[in-house]
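Homework help board

Subject: predicted structure for assignment chain

Our instructor gave us this sequence and asked us to write out the predicted structure in token form, then describe one feature. I got the tokens but I'm not sure how to describe them. Can anyone check?
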Amino acid sequence: MYEDIVSFTEDSRKHYPFYIQMAGISYCDATYKIDRKNSDIYCFEYIIKGEGTIKINGQEFIARSGDIYILPRGCDHLYMSDVNDPWTKIWFNIKGPVIDNLMQAYKLNNIYHIKNLDLKELFYEMFATVKETNKNMEQIFQKTSIIFHEILLKIYSYVEIPQTINNETALQLKEYIDTNVESNLSIKTLANYVFRSPSQTIRIFKKEYEVTPYEYILSKRIETAKLLLINTNMPIKLIALKLKFADEHYFSNYFKLKTGSAPSSFRKNK
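My token output:
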């Protein structure tokens, strides 16, 4: 077995929000096994070739060529190469409060295994950066934190969006509403946009998002109204007009129904 590894010694005088403890490329053999108890680090590993077994938080899975696995801090890490087809992998171990925040923001806290996501170039870029001898530790951590964020974005887009959106037509409808919330949107307009009948349009959207298009439009208009109330001095009457409510009275009553506060009270308390 051979490993090309770069490590950094922690400086007790500094507290980095993003800290790389170690990064490397491992050419594993049949004996390769790592067993950490209550780990204080996150491990991100990309499998170049081979396969192996990972056990984490009661789950067990096989990671093969082209896969990524994530081992979060605060739990036991147990992983090992296959005896007959051991891993070659590139990886990095990291820690710091920014990682916890990003993992939560991108809903990746319980994602351990990502199949067939080709991020090897980003992993190699991460490894090349930690090996740069012309930069100090702080410069390396700043640059690698950006690469890490890009890795998370790629994983999020690959994992979260396909699981959430199962119908392309529903997604087209949602995106159209999101970008035209201040327009006169009717079911007929939406139906024409996706070349469906009004009843089909309602059914497709509700199946995906559990609300009708009209209910979603109103919810988006309330969200927009909140932003306008907080960030502008626009009169409430003009906000109602801008967001295509029938009149100020109807807007105020509906806003209070959905938020618990009248628009004037909401603006004042924020």
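Reply (TA_rk): Your tokens look well-formed. For the description, you could write something like this. The chain has two domains: 2-164, 168-269. That's the kind of observation they're looking for.
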